[in-house]
């Protein structure tokens, strides 16, 4: 006698389940189950408020990474990041001096050759501010397009806090590697480290959800070709962000549910610590 094949979760294709939402009757996996007064309901029914009598008693719905599913504005963080990048870009066009103060530079003299500037001179904030800084219209347009294409899905599947953590740590890792290799007497700026972190995370997420990897792998390959084919691109930020994104995303969606939180914050702490150690060692070398 053949065993009947169970259906896939409607939110996570490839994940088999025998549980159905008591409201819409669609199959849902353990990561999508929300306790209701009778049985379980799916996150979409909870978000739409279509369940019966569960609004005050149901557990908070969770993403595949364990993050909260919030009702309304599913791409709030992505839109906020795009808005912040665009705002800083406009301010930089109005006041070019802002770029000089925010760009990532390891060690250099200022325009009057009087004062040493850069991360090695104690201006560590440049590691973060440079991630939100763009100078050319094509640069910010390309980065924001990728952020818009990749960010929405990642924010929905990881949850806002984990998604923002992924973005910021990937950007920091990219800045740290750039500072280590190529930031002496040379400025670097752009959200590319963070964006490449999203690219790496998207590969891990699509693999976890058992979706077709070819589109995202083609996008990664295309961007890597551009990275190394064009002069003037800080490939260090791209590679640093990409590696960090893969590590963090694997911890967020690849571990067992029981150890998920421990694995996630261990990976995030590791990426942060490695970035910090890299910056400290490079600063000591430049002193």
Automatic annotation (TrEMBL):
It comes from the Bacteria. GO terms for cellular component: membrane. It is a multi-pass membrane protein. It is found in: Membrane. Keywords: Hydrolase, Membrane, Protease, Transmembrane, Transmembrane helix. GO terms for molecular function: serine-type endopeptidase activity. This is Rhomboid family intramembrane serine protease. It comes from Streptomyces ficellus.
């Amino acid at each position: 006698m053949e065993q009947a094949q169970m259906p896939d979760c409607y939110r996570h294709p490839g994940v088999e389940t025998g549980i159905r939402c008591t409201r819409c009757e669609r199959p849902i996996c353990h990561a999508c189950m929300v306790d209701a007064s009778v049985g379980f309901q799916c996150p979409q029914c909870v978000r739409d408020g279509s369940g019966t009598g569960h609004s005050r008693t149901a557990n908070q719905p969770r993403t595949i990474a364990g993050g909260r599913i919030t009702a309304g504005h599913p791409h709030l963080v992505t839109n906020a990041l795009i808005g912040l990048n665009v705002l800083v870009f406009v301010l930089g066009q109005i006041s070019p001096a802002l770029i000089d103060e925010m760009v990532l530079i390891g060690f250099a003299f200022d325009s009057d050759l009087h004062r040493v500037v850069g991360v090695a001179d104690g201006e560590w904030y440049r590691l973060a501010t440079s991630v939100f800084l763009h100078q050319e219209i094509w640069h910010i347009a390309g980065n924001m397009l990728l952020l818009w294409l990749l960010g929405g899905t990642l924010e929905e599947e990881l949850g806002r806090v984990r998604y923002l953590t992924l973005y910021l740590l990937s950007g920091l890792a990219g800045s740290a590697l750039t500072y280590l290799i190529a930031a002496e007497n040379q400025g670097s700026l752009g959200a590319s480290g963070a964006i490449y972190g999203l690219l790496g995370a998207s590969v891990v997420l699509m693999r976890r959800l058992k979706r077709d990897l070819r589109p995202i792998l083609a996008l990664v390959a295309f961007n890597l070709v551009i990275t190394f084919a064009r002069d003037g691109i800080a490939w260090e930020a791209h590679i640093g962000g990409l590696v960090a994104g893969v590590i963090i995303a694997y911890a967020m969606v690849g571990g067992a549910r029981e150890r998920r939180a421990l694995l996630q914050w261990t990976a995030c702490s590791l990426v942060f610590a490695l970035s910090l150690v890299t910056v400290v060692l490079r600063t000591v070398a430049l002193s």
